[in-house]
Specification:
heterodimer; A: alpha+beta; eight-stranded mixed beta barrel; elongated; B: alpha+beta; three-stranded antiparallel sheet; two-stranded antiparallel ribbon
Amino acid sequence: MDSSTIAMKRSHLRWLERALLLVGILCLGIWAWSWLDSTYFQYRENQILDEALNAAPAAPQGTAAETDSLGSFKPQPAATPPKPLEDGSLIGRIEIPRIGVSAVVLEGVDTKALRRGVGHIPETARPGIGNVGLAAHRDSFFRGLKDIRKNDIIRLQTLEGTFQYRVDWTEIVKPDDTKVLADNGTSELTLVTCYPFYYVGSAPKRFIVRAQQVDEAEARVE
Amino acid sequence: MKRLTLMTAVLAIVAAPALFAQSTLNTNAPGPSQETKPGQTNNNLQNPGSNMQGTQNQNGTMQEHGTVEGSANESVTGTNDMNNQNGTSTGTTGTTGTTTGTMNNTDSTGTTGTMNNDTTGTGSTDTSGSYSGSSNTDTTTTSGSLPKTASDLPTVAIAGLLALFAAFALRTYAKRNA
C-alpha cells in the first residue's frame, strides 16, 4: 500500500471520527437539554403550585364519592361541569410517598406535556368526580411505578382539594385496551405508563395502576 | 487480526449495555398484585367495588306481556350527581287500552337502546305511559388507544453514547496504526 493510499485512508477515518463525535455530542446534548428543561419546569411549577395552595382558602379534603345505587336514587342538583383546561395547564401534583414519586400534573398527553410532567388524559374525569387517568413516561416520572404495590397511597394535590387514593390492582394491557379508562361511577385513579420499564424504543404494552379514592383518615391508617 | 479483535471488543462494549437494558431479566416484576387472578381482583372483570355493573351498555329490545291492574300517575324528575342521569316518567290511568312505552338511552359511550313495553290489559284498568330519559356516564370514551408513554430520549442518549464510543475506538485504532 503506497503512502498516498494510507494518507487517504487516515483522512477518511479522521472525518468519520469527527462525524461520530459530532453525532454523539448532539445526541447527548438533546438528552441533557430535555432533562434540564424537565427539571427546571418541575421546579418552577412546584413553586407556582405551592404559592397558589398557600394563597387559596383551605380547600375541603376530597372524600370518597357517594356510591348510591340506582335503587336508592336521590334527586340532587346538577353539579356544574368543570371548565375544560387548555393543554399544558397546571392541574396539580401527584405524590406516591413510598416509592418516591412526585411530579406536577399537566393537562394533556402530548409530547411536550409528557416530557415535562405527568399528563392528565383529557377524555377522563377530573379528580374527585370519576375515573381520573394520568399518564407519564416510564423512564422519567413514572419509573417508580415498577415498585408499586397494592395498598400504596397516592396523593393528588390540586387547587380543588387533596385527594387520596389507595392502589387496588395493577395490570399489563395492550395499547388499545382503553377500557381501563372507563368510568365505573366511582372515584378512581388510573395511572398509565409503558411496559416493560427497561426497554429501548417504543414499548409494546402499557402498565396500569388502578387506585380507589379513600378519605384522609383511611389513608393515614394505611 | 488486530483490527478484527479491536472491532469485536468495541462492538461488545457498546452493545452489551443496550442488550442488557432490553433484557427481560432486567425488568422487575411489577409487584405482588401482578398475578393474573389474585382473588379475582387483577383481571379484566368489572371492578369489584363498583355497584354499577352492566349499566353502561344497554342495547336491546325488551317486551313484556301481562296484565296490569291498578292505577298509576307518577312524575319523577331528578338528577343523579354520580352518573348524570336525568329522567322523566309520566303515566295516566285508563279503563281499557294498550300500553306502549319507549325508552331511549343515550350516553357518552355512544350506547343507544330502545325498550318497547307492550302491555295488553284484560282487567278493568290499564296503564299507559311513556318514559324518556338520557344517561350520561361522564367520561368513558377515549380516542382509541392509551397514551404513548415511551420517550425517545433513552434511544437518543444511547445513540449518542454509541457514537462517542465508536469515535473513541476509531481514534485509538488510528493512533496504534500511525
